[in-house]
Design goal:
By secondary structure, the protein is of the alpha/beta class. About 40% of the residues lie in helices and about 15% in strands.
């Protein structure tokens, strides 16, 4: 009765079962996996946000496939402040980056075609690809005093069915940006194999200021013209408003490829017209919210990372991997059991919720992924419990 594309395992895994059981108990849990900024104890301008949804223009139905011009101009203004020239006519508004991915996958790929995706990375891609009848082919990020694209595995993964390369800039969860040198290599690969770049930049504004970047690392791909590029972002992270469901695709690259891409995307968007009028009319106000929200998040991330490093310096069993941006930290821990078993043990013995590395397709055990937007008191207590767990076990 049901399509093969939805034949996913529907039974909860062991970690999910343990988490449900823990949440049903009376024990106080320390959640170091928080990804929802609206529940992270931030201070929002409630009046401005709600008033923005009362715009009388929302009562007029104006079906523009790319999105309302004033909303696209607001997005272009966001890029202009970042030093990027983005034409509002090169923007397609979506209800979020998930829909943006689906539009781009539909544009580029026939059923069974391939999209290359870095590992480790965010697990949502598997479901998006299945729904669009696209096959994901992994290539590796390798860690050696920082994360880098393994171009050997990337080029080896390319076949005649390859249509594009997904990059997350900065990556979730590694927090690594695509470097200038890597951009140059990607340009050559895309040219030789006629591939497009699909670049997810939802965490772009969260570069860690205390990290030595060369200045180009945190530059957007929205002004990238060497290869056909689809830059995805939205207010879910830019303004920490995931519930408002506003994202976009910025199309750039050689003129001969950009126009037909935009023409086809416009038809795809016109088929759905999914972005609500109130949200589009409020786009400018919602983007304005980033000024106060981003500073709060940056301060939270900095304080939690500092607390983590201070505690790590007092022991020798665990360490964290270098991170350049984003909301997450990767903790390297003794690989005495599978990451899932470790996460379950931490939950049951220490009441701490941490994501096992295999959720993000780490190639081996010995990694935990922690959210740096966790309220500071909970983060510090959770870290103390995690490191205490290993200290009690002692060296193996």
């Amino acid at each position: 009765m049901f399509s093969r594309r939805t034949e996913w395992p529907l039974t909860p895994n062991r970690f999910a079962e343990a988490l449900e059981q823990a949440r049903g108990s009376e024990a106080e849990l320390f959640d170091l996996t928080i990804s929802n900024p609206t529940r992270a104890g931030l201070s929002y301008d409630n009046t401005a946000i709600l008033d923005a949804l009362r715009n009388p223009s929302s009562l007029d139905y104006d079906p523009q496939p790319k999105g309302l011009l004033n909303a696209r101009q607001a997005v272009a203004g966001y890029y202009r402040e970042r030093g990027e020239a983005v034409d509002p006519e090169s923007l397609i508004l979506t209800t979020g980056t998930s829909e943006a991915y689906s539009f781009v996958f539909r544009l580029l790929a026939n059923p069974g075609d391939e999209i290359l995706v870095a590992k480790p990375s965010y697990p949502l891609f598997d479901f998006l690809a299945d729904l669009q009848d696209v096959k994901l082919v992994p290539f590796s990020l390798i860690y050696d005093h920082g994360w880098q694209i393994d171009f050997h595995t990337l080029e080896k993964a390319i076949t005649e069915k390859s249509r594009g390369i997904v990059l997350v800039h900065p990556n979730n969860p590694t927090g690594s940006f695509v470097s200038r040198a890597e951009r140059e290599q990607l340009n050559g690969i895309c040219g030789r194999h006629n591939l497009a770049l699909i670049v997810d930049e939802v965490f772009l504004d969260y570069a860690h200021k205390d990290h030595a970047l060369d200045g180009s690392h945190a530059q957007s791909f929205a002004g990238y013209h060497d290869a056909l590029t689809f830059t995805l972002s939205g207010i879910s992270k830019v303004s920490a408003l995931p519930q408002m469901k506003l994202g976009w695709i910025a199309v750039s690259g050689p003129d001969a490829q950009v126009k037909p891409a935009l023409d086809r995307l416009e038809i795809i968007a016109d088929t759905y017209l999914s972005v609500s009028a109130p949200v589009q009319c409020a786009a400018s106000a919602f983007l304005e919210q980033r000024r106060s929200i981003q500073s709060q998040l940056a301060a939270r991330v900095h304080k939690n990372l500092t607390a983590l490093d201070r505690r790590l310096a007092a022991q020798k069993l665990c360490s964290r991997l270098q991170v350049e941006g984003g909301w997450y930290a990767v903790l390297r821990v003794p690989a005495t059991r599978s990451d899932e078993e470790l996460a379950i043990s931490l939950l049951r013995q220490k009441n701490v919720i941490a994501h096992p590395g295999h959720f993000y397709d780490f190639s081996q055990d010995g990694y935990l992924v922690l959210s740096l937007i966790t309220p500071e008191k909970d983060f510090k207590a959770g870290i103390e419990r995690i490191l205490g767990f290993f200290e009690e076990a002692g060296p193996r």
